[in-house]
Structure formats: structure tokens, C-alpha cells
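Entry 14. Structure prediction run on the chain below.
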Amino acid sequence: MAKNGFAPGPFFGYSAIILETIGAVCIMLGLFTRFFAAAIAIEMAVITFVAQWPNGFSRIELPFFWGIVMLAIALRGGGPYSLDRVIGKEL
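Output returned:
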């Protein structure tokens, strides 16, 4: 992370690891779906436009796609079978 220009490298590294593991599990279960999907969409935007943009289109295609998917999930919500609907709260 530090070699890509993110100043406190361990902080950004651990936050990406936590977001991509715990956030992905929560999105699969539908728990705090909008929050984690928006956070991952922001992370994918940073990966796309800051880290991968100088490397060309073939490198930005996949994180850009997943960023758009996470943005759509953040706007729509968890759906009828999500844990957010079961507990009756959505962010």
C-alpha cells in the first residue's frame, strides 16, 4: 500500500482486508448491506482511479465493474431475504 502512495500503509492495508472479508460476508448475508456496499464501492473507485489508472484500461476494467455492482447494491439495499429485513432495520 505504501508503494502505491497510500501514506500509512499498514492502516490502509488492514482496513482493505477487513472491508473485503467482513464486508463481503455481511453483504452475502444481507447484514448492514448498504453501508458495506457503499464502502466497497468507494474502495473500488480508489483502486480503479488512483492505483490502476496509470496501467491502462485492461487493469481498471475489473475493479470498475465491481465498483458499479457495489454501488447498485448500495442504492437498492439487501432485498427481501436479507438479515436487514429480518431484524427490521436498514441503514
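The helical segments are 9-29, 33-52, 57-76, 83-87.
Filed with the rest of this week's runs.
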